[in-house]
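Hi, can you check this record?
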Amino acid sequence: MNESQTKKATPDVQVHKGNGLFVLNWKSLLVFFIFAALVFIEFKFNGSYFDEVLGIVSIGVVLWKWNRIYYQDFRALFLLFVTIGLGLFSNLLYGIHWSWFSVAVDVLTQVKLIFCFMAVRYFLSEREKQIVIDYISPFARIYFLGAFVMGIYTQLFGTGMYEEMRYGLKTFRFIFNFSHQYTSISFLMIGAIISATNISPRKKNFYTFIGTAAILLALKSPAIIYTVSYIFLYYYFKKYQKLNYKVIIPLILALIAASTYQIQTYLLNEEAARRIFFEYAFKTANRFFPLGSGFATYGSAEAAKHYSQLYVDYDFYKHWGMGEGENGMFLYDTYWPMVIGQFGWIGMVLFGYSYINMFKSIQRSKADYSKKAYIYAMFIQYMVHAMGASILSSSTGLIGFIALSLYTFPDPDKEQIRWNTRIHLDLRD
């Protein structure tokens, strides 16, 4: 039995619009307005507590749908819960954290993305997801027409819609304050175009082309990694069904070549904050072997907010951008170092494997070669982006992973049997 059959259908209202029909579905409308709210908040306020609220609601949705979760997703959640338990035990054992409220906030911050991904996956049926996609696609077309035109105009004449110069070009950010906001919103929009059913193939190819070009104009690592991955995988999946090591190695080499600027600037530079965070993440994992230092202690927003005792121990205040208050802007710019430091060697493996299981569930989705290339490219760029930014605990990363969930339709023929919460006891000898 497939997902659309197991989920109870929600009533639709069909409104005639020109020669077609516009379908109103309350669950689809709800998710569409959540996306709209997230995009508006990024544009107007540069973040809020709305993503934390979504995280709490998503936990409730996942618990509500608990007995319908596919095995790969259940395993990802199980590993996540084990990691949380180990992190909290480290908090009890070492007591480095500022307060237990700070710990609770950090726990929610680190798990909200995964729970929001799961919530959309199980809240909407395949048909309801497609309705949301078709709601978004008209806005996506307008968005990329504007982004493409203004991106080219900015390079030629200048509009103020850029952050800095790289490779002799301006790093385009369109109407947003920061490049990572522009790229995350653009990933949402281009996914809607690739997955839409209300666009002709010819128009879909056109908007995918100008959308990909507009994204690349950001010239930051997420945009470059996504574009290189998408183009490479688009032509590969057009001919082959599965990846193999002969393809993965050239792709990795291409991504390394595309990320040369970031590697030299942020990872090889001994004075760069990201390099320092990685170096001391491993020192922290060894110092508090094997469980790490616990939540709200290293690399997280709460650790930065209250200036963790570990930062004092490591003399972070001596480095520009890693001090207290206004001089601590780089303290919020990390993710995988946070995982290594706070969760230790055991938690790092468990937490990383949670994402691997999420990727496996995404792999089992029904998708043509273009959509498959998009899904893989999206996941790759977020995993790499998290090496030097807190993208997987931020609202922009949340938008991207909710989009990934929206654009992936689980394939019942590939998914393993859903987790069954019933336990059978056999008392016979």
